[in-house]
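Note to self: keep these together.
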Amino acid sequence: MYPYNKKKKKTGEYFNPIESYQGLGSSYFNPVAVGNLSVNDIDENRVMNSFTLTYNIAPWLNYMQLVSLQYVNTKRNNFLPYNALGADWLNQNNNFQREQNSANTEIITRSQLNFIPRLDSDHSLSGMLMFETDQIDFEWSTIRGRNGPSTEIQDPASNSPILDIASGSQQTHILGGLANVNYKFRDKYMTQLNLRTDASSRFGSNNRWALFPSATFGWRLSEEPWLAGLTFLTDAKLRFSWGQAGRQPNQAYDRHAIFNTPTIGQYIEDPIVIPLQVQLSNLKWQTLTQSNLGLDISLFNRFNITGEIYTKLTRDLLWPRYKIPKSSGFTELKQYNGGELLNEGWEFDVSAVVYRQRETTLRLNFNISRNVNSFIAFPENFNNEVDLSIGNGQFPRRADLGEPVGSFYGFRYLGIWPSNEDVVALNENGTVLKDVNGDPVPLTYSGGYVFQGGDARYEDVNHDGQIDLLDVVYLGDSNPDFIGGFGGNFRWKDFRISTQWHYRMGYYIVNEIALTTEGMLDKNNQSKAVLQRWRQQGQDEEGMLPRAYLNHPANNLGSDRYVESGNYLRLINMTFSYGIPKNICQKIRISSLELALTMRRIVTMTRYTGQDPEVPQDMDDPFWFGTDRARTPPPKEYTLSIALGF
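Structure:
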């Protein structure tokens, strides 16, 4: 990271050439220099207060009023000195300065009336009426400067050339009301009815208000006389629920029409005003309708079993930045309603007290779940193919009805061509494909580049002698077939050990780390895996990578070469604790003392070769699929705690 002088000693200055073998120093910079010399400071002040008033109107009726205030002020300063990267003096990243200030204020009020009338012992009734408001104010300003006179002057307002100044503010108002009734008969039959209404300033007056009803019904089977003889059955309850919920846009002003004046342009002496954003008067709530059927069983006072099946149907999906034809005069709508997404699945959970004696207890638990999602309807004029690029490092992005969100498409990778003579286009029956003159058809990439020995080999799905978009196939999806966990808790006298594991099974990841470091197409660093690359004609070994070839057009196409199973098992929590005996605590005049060591995410078992198999999911994006771009994996955590009671 440091250059050497003529005496072969480190100069102490960071190695940051303006141009190197890789390219410009402003793009390929010294990461150690940036980490040590740059500034990225955040100063945040947060104030949170809540005031609650409770008034008992009658023994069966009370009123509660809540007012909550949250204020967050944030100041962020960034500075990138000239010696942190290689760039000529006129580059705007030299001594780059930025200051950003923001203030976020949220006021929440809730007025709640609760009633619990006194009935006989067989009946239980309660209810609630609630009205709440939520007001959010957010404002920000930022100033950026460049080419400051010194590394000691880091304030963009200190006479440095100003790059830009910007500011903004937004305000959102949300109103909500809820009516709730609970009824229970002999602790055997239970029901809960809810009716919620919400309004948001993020919608126009046409669809600002929405109603979301829900209901839950329960039947405690174990209280029925005809099950009284089953002494091993401690408790059993069958429950069913149905309900709706809504979702609003993330931004405050997506529904508004916005006009602005262009930077350059006027009519005679009058400025030109142009529309920048379409008004969305009919924008409405995204609605989720969900139904659940569950069964809870307790056996022998030791085993607890819960099973549940559910269906979730999302209608009027909110699509941010929805693309529209440019002939309309715009390129996109900030938000658009349309389409339906279906989620179906089940969950199973069991816990048990396996062993219990006076000083020893062992508890175990296990859970597993499965969810299947798919689009069952798209919006009108929906383009289900947003990116049909098939170049190096690119996977075509598309969405199909009936297929799950998270599906990805690409080529089938078959290894490498051992030699030039082996490269041949084949018919469906495996014979050599020939042209009208009877000559063998050369295998090409999109009709241009002719494959040679050492090149990547892809399946010619339609057998036309070309590797192109028509050979792209469905490769899999990034949704786990099963998600769950298991663990246990063991106690012996004053010692306790608890563990909890988490697993995902049956899903795939695109390893973009390997895609970047094993392509051998550019001047960037590569991984040690490229040592097993093809080097000479006739070379054919298992697991061999294609040849190194600068700017090869097709050696690194998006294919199942980089698709890996993401199955993993992770120890997410392990705790050892010891409680000092009471007699010892009394001697040192304390009531209790407990020591504990907690370890989180210390073990992950997987065959995935990338950074971390637990890739985040984005179900709101129909074109999402799981990729690993070297995101920092979750850290291992060790916590030593002491709980002292007086």
